[in-house]
Amino acid sequence: MTDLSRSALILVDIQNDFLPGGTLAVPDGDSILKAVNALTRRPFRAVVATQDWHPPHHCSFSPQGGPWPPHCVAGTHGADFPDSLRPEPVTHIVRKGVLQERDSYSGFLDNDRATSTGLDGLLKGLDVNHVIICGLALDYCVTATALDAVLCGYQTDVVPDACRGIAGDSRTVLEKLESQGVLLTSLHDF
User: Fold this and answer.
1) Catalytic-labelled residue, pool 17, 52, 72, 96
2) Residue 1: predicted pLDDT
3) CA geometry: angle 72, 91, 84, nearest 5 deg
4) Residue 41, number of CB atoms within 10 A of its CB
5) What is the 3-state secondary structure (H, E, C) of 17-61?
6) Residue 96 among the catalytic residues
7) Of the residues 13, 30, 52, 110, which is catalytic?
8) CA angle 136, 14, 6 (to 5 degrees)
9) Which of 128, 25, 16 is nearest to 81 (CA)?
């Protein structure tokens, strides 16, 4: 078992709009909730939930020329965490994609690669040196968060059983993560 006293669990974008029935639903996205809730029962130093929190006319939305349908608009039901996600263990929420003209896939940096979300400072302030990442969508926001965690110097694990991607086959994404220093771990390793 890993010592979790300097570890943080990062729950990436587990929000209603990314679950079945949402405006940008990840296929089978709700199937991760049992594994995620099991992970949150472990004694992590912190459990951080990232949350897409977009203004109504965000640049990533298709009406504004972006690639995605409108989703996770700040203050809406779609931006909320699902009722089936245990809220008690969450110690911090980091909102991303909050600026109308800039998107943010990573929980650490906006897509301009210069603007911090504050997550790195939060984790360093908590004396965290290891992050375990799960959530939605594996091939976008989970991958971006994991790669930035490595760049920020964290020992970084991704739990594939607690992730789902938009694309059906995740092998290529997982190989990319491993090649960049991310460990792929099982729920039972914690």
Assistant:
1) 96
2) 60
3) 55
4) 11
5) HHCCCCCCCCCCHHHHHHHHHHHHCCCCCEEEEEEECECCCCCCE
6) yes
7) 13
8) 90
9) 16
Of 134, 141, 161, 163, which is the active-site residue?
Answer: 141
Residues of the chain where predicted confidence (pLDDT) is lower than 70 = 1, 168
Report the DSSP pairing between strands 92-96 and 46-52: parallel
Q: What are phi and psi of 39, to 5 degrees?
A: -60, -40
Query: Whole-model pTM?
Result: 0.96
- For CA atoms 139, 120, 75, 58, the dihedral sign is negative
Q: Which residue has the tokens 């949350």?
A: 51
Q: How many CA atoms lie less than 13 Å away from 179 in the CB half-sphere?
A: 6
Residue range 119-143, pLDDT digits in tens: 999 999 999 999 999 999 999 999 9
Which residue's structure tokens are 């809220």?
Answer: 87
